[in-house]
Amino acid sequence: MRAAIIDNESKVRELLKALLVTYCPSVELVGEADSMQTGIQLILREDPDLVFLDIELGDGTGIELYQTFKTFPARVIFITAHDKYAIDAFKCSALDFLLKPIDPEELVSAIKKAGTLEMIKSLERQVAVLKSHLGATNDQALKIVLSDSESIHIVPIDNIMWCCAEGSYTKFVLSQGRDILVSKNLKAYEDMLDSDKFLRIHHSYLVNVSHIKRFEKSEGGVLVMDNDSILPVSVRKKDNLMQLLKNWNRNTVVK
Q1: What angle do CA 88, 14, 117 make, to 5 degrees?
Q2: Which end of the chain is least crowded, N or C, by CB within 10 Å?
């Protein structure tokens, strides 16, 4: 796989080159650039298979660079630093990204995913979802891209009833009566989903509060969801749930 690096920080480029040599010897580096304009020239000149693309470039952004091409000619792994909002958006849209400083294991994982046919086919859809997250208002329905072993699903976040841990995997239970099993742990989705909408009620369960039907106090406390499923509430998480329920009317009743 032939790769190019587009990042305005020389130290990041040097580190990434060293990591590629050590951990990804099958990746051939064909060039590097430090700006949006030089990056475009590099892509046109070298026609790489894969581009490591920084979000914040001195003369523009990685998204703007991507959008200059009617059809982007390569697979993309985005690189970003400390912009939590952007990081959350990348996670929700399922685009591969590397957080600075770059972790070798994450680099290897991202490159493996970049080599799959599924990522090539889904790139346009993923970028569209990313753009919707970056520019969304509170009135717009956000979506998340979930990849299982067979398909890539674009799911409105409001349709998620709850997520539950299944080992190192996470199962999403949707309001349409279907499940999606993805190969990321529950903690990853707890970090990316809005904490005002999703509450951890147990070490194995993260629930969408809008789909809670009632709380039953028997047997230490359980949640009954919209589809009448019963979920356990751990003792440590019960106080947070009780506080949410106490504030429910204050936050949801139209005055």
Answers
A1: 50
A2: C
DSSP letters spanning 38-96: HHHHHHHHH--SEEEEESEETTEEHHHHHHTSSS--SEEEEEE-S-HHHHHHHHHHT--
Structure tokens at 132: 């919707």
| Rounded alpha-carbon distances, angstroms, from residue 113 to 72, 80, 108, 188 | 17, 18, 9, 17
Instruction: Record the pTM.
Output: 0.49
Please, which residues bridge with residue 153 across strands? 146
Nearest to 206 by CA among 218, 216, 197, 214: 197
What lies within 8 Å, CB to CB, of 177 at 6+ separation is: 227
Q: Is residue 216 within 8 Å of residue 115, measured between CB atoms? A: no
* pLDDT 10s digits, 63-116: 888 878 877 788 888 888 765 545 554 554 435 678 888 999 989 988 887 766
Tokens encoding 194: 């809005």
Q: Quote the Cα angle for 193-220-207, to 5°.
A: 15
Domains of the chain listed by start with CATH number: 2-135 (3.40.50.2300), 143-252 (2.40.50.1020)
Per the CB < 8 A criterion, the answer to whether 97 and 90 are in contact is yes
Q: What tokens does 153 get? A: 């699903």
**Over the stretch 159-215, which tens digit does the pLDDT of each residue have?**
999 999 988 889 999 998 889 998 888 888 887 777 778 889 999 999 999 899 988
